[in-house]
Amino acid sequence: MTGSAADDRTLGIDPDLLGILACPDTHHSPLTVDVAASELVCPTCRRAFPVRDGIPVLLLDEARQLPS
Predict the structure, then answer these.
(1) Core vs surface per residue 47-63: b (16+ CB within 10 A) or e
(2) What digits encode the pLDDT tens for the residues 7-43?
(3) pTM (2 decimals)?
(4) How many alpha carbons fall within 13 Å on the CB side of residue 2?
(5) Secondary structure string (H, E, C) spanning 11-63
(6) Which domains are delineated in the chain?
(7) How far apart are CA 65 and CA 27, in angstroms?
(8) What is the pLDDT of residue 1?
(9) What is the distance between the alpha carbons of residues 58 and 29, in angstroms, rounded to a whole number?
(10) CA-based, 20 to 30 A from 16: which of 7, 8, 33, 44?
(11) 32, 41 in Cβ contact below 8 A?
(12) Cα–Cα distance between 68 and 66 in angstroms, integer?
């Protein structure tokens, strides 16, 4: 990774991959990027999934629940 502004907006995740990532819960909603928190967020169930070293951790047990 080069540390470019595009990498910062995608947390180091390939934009094509971001386009197909979905929440692992049964509704499989598309995820959005929260750059400030380094997380991918599901707008349906309000879970935030961490991104570590450019790798999304899409495990329900690793997600944190966001306030409603």
Answers:
(1) bbbbbeeeebebeeeeb
(2) 778 999 999 999 999 999 999 999 999 999 999 999 9
(3) 0.87
(4) 4
(5) CCCCHHHHCCCECCCCCCCECEEECCCCEEECCCCCEEEEEECCEECCCHHHC
(6) 5-65 (2.20.25.10)
(7) 16
(8) 44
(9) 12
(10) 44
(11) yes
(12) 6
Residue 45 near residue 26 (C-beta atoms within 8 A): no
For CA atoms 20, 21, 25, 29, give the dihedral sign: negative
Cα 18 to Cα 41: distance, rounded to the nearest angstrom: 12
Q: Return the half-sphere exposure (C-beta side, CA atoms, 13 A cut-off) of residue 7.
A: 8
**What does the block give as tokens for 39?**
């997380």
Q: Are 33 and 42 in contact (CB under 8 A)?
A: no
